[in-house]
Amino acid sequence: MNESNLTLSTSQKLQTFLLLSKSVKGVANSKLILDVLSSPGIYVFSELAEAPNVVEASKLPEVAPYYALLKIFMYGTFKDYVAEQDNLPTLNDAQRIKLKHLSIVALSESSRTLPYTLLQEYLDIPNVRTLEDLIIDGFYNGILVGKLDQKQQQLQVEYTMGRDVRPEQLEETMLSLKSWSDNTKTVLKAIDNRISAAHEMNSTNQIERDEYNKQIEIIRRKIRSKSGGVSSLSNNNNNNNSSNKMETDDIDSAGIMRSREQGLNDPNSEQRSGRAKKSRGTKRFLVGRP
After folding, report:
1. Chain center to CA of 20
2. Which of 120, 135, 164 is the last residue of a domain?
């Protein structure tokens, strides 16, 4: 049984006695208190101690010792009972076991490792076997969770149920909660500052990326512009070369035509042509002789 279930169970079982307290008057409240302390599964008693009829009856001499015993079950230990037992009602076995369980819970608040020797002395238990039976019974009832280390002769407490809070402990608890709240606010503020810094850095990086991309685009446009100018100049040169070639071809053709016309009109051209052919033939003959 975990702590939340145990608290719920205790509250439910206590409701029956709280309803009875509304009708019980005077000295009868002493019997009501003893019944609650003996009832299994009830480990918190603040609601009963604050019930109007119980508070009123606690002022009576006959009820005052029982109300004092109720306070020990709320805040004290078995050792406290032993110190005041002459002025308090005698405990039955169920009440004695319950108070010892509550005493182990109180001791675990200061240390999670409880030696057997300390527990035996504090709870007035003569031998280890009886002590271990008491602790095991507390495990089964959900009062505490832990381990029995028989080799080291100690109890290792993991967690326990909650007990009633003393009035002075309430102020300490409020101060602790306030300190926790202040520390939480400080941590949250630090986290918010980190988040704001991250957002600001991200914005700065985005601006730098945009500027970088802008410069890259400008450079690309310049490169495209230069590439277009070079291509246009190359085309112009090619066109000029083609025009010059055509003009040269036209000039050569005109020259050839004029030469032919002159040859047709000159009567001596055939003689010159014949002499040229003869000279070439003669030259070949002379070269061929030994």
Report:
1. 50
2. 164
Residues 107 and 32 in one domain: yes
* Contact present, 161 and 3 (Cβ < 8 Å): yes
**Does pTM surpass 0.85?**
no
Alpha helices in 39-108 (DSSP H): 46-49, 52-57, 64-75, 78-84, 93-108
> How many alpha carbons lie under 13 Å from residue 166 in its C-beta half-sphere?
9
Classify residue 285: in a domain, yes or no: no
Altogether, the residues listed in the chain come to a count of 290
pLDDT tens-digit profile, the chain (290 residues) = 555 555 556 778 888 899 999 999 999 999 999 999 999 889 999 999 999 999 999 999 999 999 999 999 999 999 999 999 999 999 999 999 999 999 999 999 889 999 999 999 999 999 999 999 999 999 998 899 999 999 999 999 998 988 888 877 778 778 888 898 999 999 999 999 999 889 888 888 888 888 889 888 888 888 888 876 655 555 555 555 555 555 555 555 555 555 555 554 555 544 444 444 444 444 444 444 44
- Cβ–Cβ under 8 Å, residues 39 and 10: no
278 in a structural domain: no
Beta strands in 96-225 (DSSP E): 113-115, 144-149, 154-160
Report the chain's C-alpha Rg in angstroms: 58
Nearest Cα residue to 161 out of 108, 120, 116, 118: 108
Q: Is the dihedral of CA 18, 23, 29, 35 positive or negative?
A: negative
Residue 252 belongs to what domain range? 168-267
Query: d(Cα 52, Cα 28) in Å, to the nearest integer?
Result: 14
